[in-house]
Amino acid sequence: MYQGRSDLGDEYWGVFPFYGYNHRRYGVDHNFFLLFPLYYESTDDDARTMRLLWPFITYADSPGRKALKVWPFFGRDQIRNEYFSRYVLWPLFQNVEKHPGTEQATSFKALPFPLYMNTKTCYDSSTDIVWPFFNYYRHRGGHTRYTLWPFFKYGSGGGIEQLNLLYLYSYKKDLHKGTTDSGNTKGYVSVEDDEVYTERKFLMVSTIQKRYRKGCLVFSRYRFWPFAEYTWDLQKGSHLKIPEIIPLKNDWFDLNLGRLLRFVDFRDTPITREFSYLFGLRKKTQLKTFSHIPPAPKPGEDDWAELISGAFGNR
Q1: Which of 67, 97, 156, 245 has its CA 20 to 30 A from that of 12?
Q2: pTM, whole model, 2 decimals?
């Protein structure tokens, strides 16, 4: 049982899971439930969404959102001009577009998963055949990479040459900086012409990673497994995940399953803020009035205290 008042003075109450409503909580303006998960309704600006037997049936017909989804059989979803999605027999056949026409535009296709997948951004594209065994990656700067997992990885072009054989031998050379790294282990500190990369691991699975360019922090990752992970990038923004259980870095997994395994998934890109709460029950995207990213985390001593606080985005 709960009762409260929103920041605008609207009162609300409920007896979960039988009946209740909220104002300006959980990332929406209003929500209402009756015998949850039998019926759940939410309103966010001009987008009104109804869910029956969540997460199986979703319906919306409002200016801000139009959707009809009967998961996992078929679904279509459009949220303003920011998000477009269609699927049949999820996750086999999917087509997803986010923020089209902007620098943050991304698209994803699976026809069908896992036989063929393609992910595109304004900067690069990645194609998987019989995922995760074969991957072809191309960056707009001219770098291409071929991967036949777990046997080898080879990349060339764009000033970067790299080779990896059975994860026992690795070689990478940046022709712009004239640096070469080879061997079968990763050092704690790697120094290049104008960059310093540091990494410290805790119990083999938790880690603090940082990259400095000309003395300024440009990238950091705090992974406190399995509780949380926070990543900050000078150009891409930040990403907070609570919890982060599976150490798998893959766009398809993150798009389709990652949020369903997280209580909180918060992305702060240069032009948007993307929220996902309660294992994907509530999702929201906000456009910024001007492009910016959150400030960089404050570097600490690379100890347990920094790992834990940083992983929850507190630095």
Answers
A1: 67
A2: 0.64
